[in-house]
Structure formats: structure tokens, C-alpha cells
Description:
It comes from Dietzia aerolata. This is ParA family protein. InterPro entries: AAA_dom, DNA_Partitioning_ATPase, P-loop_NTPase. Residues 3-178 form the AAA domain. α1 packs across α10 (237-250). The protein has one domain (4-250): 3-Layer(aba) Sandwich (Rossmann fold), CATH 3.40.50.300. By secondary structure, the chain is α/β, with parallel strands linked by helices. The longest helix is centred in the middle third of the chain and has 17 residues, at 155-171. It has helices at 16-29, 44-48, 60-64, 72-75, 107-111, 133-141, 155-171, 191-204, 217-224, 237-250; strands at residues 3-8, 34-38, 77-78, 84-87, 122-126, 144-149, 178-184. Strands 3-4-2-5-1-6-7 form a seven-stranded mixed sheet, with helices on both faces. Bound molecules: adenosine-5'-triphosphate and magnesium ion (MG). Residues 12-18, 40, 42, 44, 129, 185-186, 213, 215-216, 219-220, 223 line the site of adenosine-5'-triphosphate (ATP). Adenosine-5'-triphosphate (ATP) binds at residues 12-18, 40, 42, 44, 129, 185-186, 213, 215-216, 219-220, 223.
Amino acid sequence: MTRKLALCNQKGGVGKTATTLGLASSLSEQGLNVLIVDVDPQGNSTTGLGVEVTEDTMTTFDLMSRTAPGAAADAVIATPWEHVDLIPSNEALANIESDGANDLIFRLDIAFEGIDLSPYAAVLFDCPPSLGKLLFAVLCAVDGVIAVTEPTIDSVRGIENLQETIRNVQRRPNPRLTLEAIVLSRKRTTGEHRFREAELRDTYGDLVARTAIPELTARQDAHSTHTPIHKFSGGKALALQVAYTDLLSELSINTEGSVA
Ligand SMILES: Nc1ncnc2c1ncn2[C@@H]1O[C@H](COP(=O)(O)OP(=O)(O)OP(=O)(O)O)[C@@H](O)[C@H]1O
Ligand SMILES: [Mg+2]
């Protein structure tokens, strides 16, 4: 079954979008289809994939501004990246935080109701850096959370907060939700990063993915040229390609049975 996974951390700039796109690049490289749902008003996944949102483009905002079962199917577009589809986002999505509708946090889940996701190996939700309504809406719609964090002093505390949020959503309304993995991103070879990585592994054990994503400028260069990291040849892109592919193999994403 195709799993819906959210890449989360309320802290900004930790690598949620980079990890979303890196995993999508790995899946695409293996000939597997993936759907990215951009749930960030910054729209960094959308622009990173080289997609331009116009007035006519249906976005995540449209899915969340009304209650429409199955509407997600109408919002899916192909992207310049082979095998990668997208539900795009732009700054309009920020308005959702002030929407007081009773069913607001369920609308994203409802938008996916009845949709056949079997053509995709995974559906990846790129989350905004907040614990607001948008994040709750995602947590109601997905099966699992991949917490992305940098190995810094605040990371253990940040994961604790996210776990508490997950527990609240688990109680009601989404009992199937689990924290699937903690991914260390933007890892440098400094003593501080090594120390914090050890601290996270001590605290969370096997929940922390064995593969950490190194901080390498090729990641930014690939992003700014809208290029999948597996198609990027500059700098130390190869180390990033290996890291994202190794990370993918650790996650609960079925890379066997999906059709390309
Ligand atoms: N492994 C990496 N190596 C080098 N730079 C990276 C890496 N991962 C992310 N970056 C850069 O760090 C910045 C923040 O990364 P990214 O946008 O993925 O974080 P984010 O958690 O999605 O941020 P936000 O919370 O704003 O959505 C970007 O400029 C990105 O290109
Ligand atoms: Mg982001």
C-alpha cells in the first residue's frame, strides 16, 4: 500500500524540503513514481521542482479552503522531474491559519478520500516550519512522520515537542499516525555536530536513521538550478546521491512493488 509520509519539524531551515526532494530524486532514479504535496506557503518544493504557480494552477490552498472529497486528484500536476508529480503551493496557503472552519484540519485528509495512490511508491508532504493548523491538517492526513533535524543543541527538545504533537493527534483523530524515523540532516564534521548526533542516537535509539545527510554545497546548487540531486554532477553530489538512496532504503517506503 502506498504510504503517505510527512516531513516535519517546527524549526525552520533544517532540511525538510531538501530531504523531500532528495528522496523524490532517489525514487525517480529507481524508476518509481512519487507524489509531493507542498504544504508550505513558502512553496520551496514547488520552486525547487521548477514549477511555476499561475492564477489557474490548483494548489494546496484550494484543497484546504473548502471541503471537497477526492479533490486532490484534480490538483496533481506533472513536474519537469521524471516520475515526480506535485500538488503545488504558494503564499496564499498562509491565509489558512486564520480560517476558523470547524473541519479545517480534516480537509486535506478529505481531499485524498477515495483516491487511487497505487501508481506512487510514496506520497511525501513537505511541511511548514510551525506547529499550526497546516501541520495538524497534514498529521490528520498521513500514515507516518519523518522528523528532519539538524544535530544541534535544540534538536532533542524540538523532537520532544513534535512527539507530543503526534501523540495528541494519535489520541484523536488519527490513531494510525506514527513517528517513523528521525533523519539527521545538514550534518557537518564538527565536534559539536558529532556530540549532538550521539545525544540524539542515545535518546531515540533505532528511531534515528543510520544514514545522516551531510551538509554539502551541491545540495544548494542542485536546488537553485531545479535539478534532481541524482542528475547533478557538480561538487560532492555523489555523496548526497548515496546518502539519499541509503536513507530511502531505511524508510518504510515500498520500492519493490510500485509501477513506474
Ligand atoms: N544537506 C545539505 N547541504 C547543504 N545545504 C543544505 C542541505 N540541506 C538543506 N540545505 C540548505 O539549507 C537551507 C534550508 O534547507 P531546507 O529549505 O531544505 O530546510 P527546510 O527545513 O525545508 O526549511 P523551511 O523550514 O524554511 O521549510 C536551504 O538553503 C537548503 O538548500
Ligand atoms: Mg521547507
